[in-house]
Write the structure tokens for this entry.
Amino acid sequence: MTELIAPSSSASSGTNAAVTCTNCNLDNLCIPKGLVREEIDELTLLVNRNNIRQKGEPIYHAGGSFKGIIALRSGSAKLVTLDSNGNELIVDFIFPGELLGFDGLASQVHSCSAIALETVNFCHLPAQKVEQLAANTPGFSNVLLQRSCDQYESQVENMMLSRRTADERVACFILRISERLRVRGYSELEFRLTMSREEMGNHLGIAHETISRIIRNFQDRNLIEVKSKQLKITNKKELFNFYTSYSLNSPK
Amino acid sequence: MTELIAPSSSASSGTNAAVTCTNCNLDNLCIPKGLVREEIDELTLLVNRNNIRQKGEPIYHAGGSFKGIIALRSGSAKLVTLDSNGNELIVDFIFPGELLGFDGLASQVHSCSAIALETVNFCHLPAQKVEQLAANTPGFSNVLLQRSCDQYESQVENMMLSRRTADERVACFILRISERLRVRGYSELEFRLTMSREEMGNHLGIAHETISRIIRNFQDRNLIEVKSKQLKITNKKELFNFYTSYSLNSPK
DNA sequence: CGACGCTTTGAGGAGATTCAAGACACGTGG
DNA sequence: CCACGTGTCTTGAATCTCCTCAAAGCGTCG
């Protein structure tokens, strides 16, 4: 099996040599969030920057040994695993500033694969540096623990979502992506859905045909405008109401 | 609001004064798993033992400040949260040797309530001792991180389960409980379901009427025998096949 | 321009829910 | 000890949501 994560020497061209964890525009989202200045300086020295993958290429593989922590700088990715029948299950989609790799931290073996949905650029903190930092930098273990515990929340949210109707799930999905992009400085009302309908449906537990029908329905209600993968939210408030209370009282 | 977790002085009667984390029969499941001898000795000194709750009583409350880590010694509990419409959602059921409290570790505020399903006895590591141990005991932060990352796995498992049919979910639910009890030294084939059908359905995302119908169906197929809450697995292999491959090829 | 994959749309059917009613279990008080 | 009441569990019938299968439209890339 080929080495999936290239050493920084081969990947980091001179184009962006001045970027460090201190002056990175994602420092309020990525690992540095929660660290003090000296800790960030230490982190800066250990991170491999400017790793690139094209659409469809893996960042790491399920079953492979723990590769360390990945921070996505640009682009988007999907985190997938295989269920017991060998079917792909998309656990999450990943956006800039978000961390990857926790699926291998406890057992030292990745239970998921991370696959680029478009061209991605990411930073890589290798496994042995993770251990080194965790041992020497108290703030760092806290950050890891913090992020890892956050997944409890996300587990609960996913559970709640799986109880709702297909319409509510799609509305919620769109709004969550909107919010995640907003926090990262992108437009919250107009963006590209980088995943296919199939992938969306896989993640939400809905047939892709149903996804299509629901998106059409949302357009007919003037909640959104969709042109292939390009999406524009035209009535955010109504879209939000739709997914919180539609099933309770709203007429057809 | 009353203090939910009593200090050990009031709760620990003299009946079991000799129990420590070292000689506890759950030491291969609870926090000590992964710690070396001296670390366990240190832990022993900080834990409040023999806390009791009766059926229906809370161990801690959603919305309350982080109370520390709880280790269940006997009995069973449910971990519940409220969805955005105010409905109860049962995130998990808890058995002896399992840890509780991670839902408050990151944010310092519990997002879930832990409620006893029957009389429970638990150990309590108070919040400030958690911090103290995390700072001074490298093994301890690792244990926390480890357990917390394990929840990634469980999130993925839950996601997979939510894609299966109601029958498969119930079969899987029974088998998982069986396995969790087996590991803890209880009978794996005959046990009491301490939760109601309603609670089971809530956790699995199935109406309680459907739970009843499926349990009847399993009985008719001679996979299990059920008398109210008492359950006996009579054909474990078939029950297992049922949930792994039923939907693929098996006739009615 | 043609082939391929992705998306959309329609029709029919399966699985699970909801509503309604009856059976059973458990605890209380007579 | 039994009658009674409450809450839980079971069962049935009607309904609905979403899936599956099938086919046609659209876009993209060689």
Q: What stands out?
A: The helical segments of chain A are 8-11, 37-46, 127-136, 138-161, 166-183, 197-204, 208-220, 236-249. The CA atoms of residues 224 and 233 of chain A lie 4 Å apart. The domain at 37-161 of chain A is CATH 2.60.120.10 (Jelly Rolls).
